[in-house]
Amino acid sequence: MGNRTADIREILQQIGSQAPPHHFEFSDPFWVLITTILSHRTRDEVTDSASRRLFERYGNADGLAMADPRDVESVIARVGFYRVKAKRIIQVSRIIIDRFGGRVPETLEDLVSLPGVGRKTANVVLSDSMGIPAIAVDTHVQRISRRFGWSRSDDPAATEKRLMKIIPRDMWVGLNPMLVEFGKTVCRPVRPRCEICRVNSYCRYFSKRKKS
Looking at residue 118, what is its pLDDT? Predict the structure, then answer.
């Protein structure tokens, strides 16, 4: 068990075969951005449905930038914190039009300058819609990283920095959705399914659990 590149590559390949990633409803960077903003504290199926309805009604950043907040609220009403998010996605759309000429920015610095967009959301957009290598750390990635001994920190930024050092760069794109699915189906926060995990022999958490 360790952090050697060969071990990590094998772990991630096995995780990918056991828990194929949940893919976004869209591949367009703007709609991946909007979907990711909506996804906070919201189930995937609810987020996907809301994003699809937004796309069908408004089409692009221009349409959403001109939308009435009350209309947007009605479209995304099942999403957590929908009133706050309705205002936020309209504001983000307007900034993308006014400041970035209608194109989602392609750097982390520009993305996190958008209201409500943190490093996790920015890295999801870069990696999963633009194919730019980046690692998004959410609660699933954080938990899995600690269980495998990849990171000892509770700080997502520190975990991101650590993962960038030990995970091969060619595996960064698609890493987040793969680990998220693994975290939902196998390496769950409560009652993890260690007995069926294909990489439990690499896992420090499982090793300690067996000894206790």
Answer: 96
Nearest CA to 97 among 132, 129, 66?
66
Domains and their CATH numbers in the chain: 5-19+136-211 (1.10.1670.10), 29-130 (1.10.340.30)
How many C-beta atoms surround the C-beta of residue 136 within 10 A? 26
Amino acid at 128: D
Q: Which two tokens stand for residue 38?
A: 């909506």
Query: Residues of the chain whose pLDDT is less than 70?
Result: 1-3, 24
Share of the chain above pLDDT 90, in %: 90
And the tokens for 70?
A: 């009350």
Number of Cβ atoms within 10 Å of the Cβ of 189: 10
Looking up tokens 């947007």 gives: 72
Residue type, 29: P
Q: How far apart are CA 190 and CA 212, in angstroms?
A: 17
User: Angle, nearest 10°, between helix axes 119-130 and 175-185?
Assistant: 110
Taking only the tens place, the pLDDT of each residue in 103-149 is 999 999 999 999 999 999 999 999 999 999 999 999 999 999 999 99
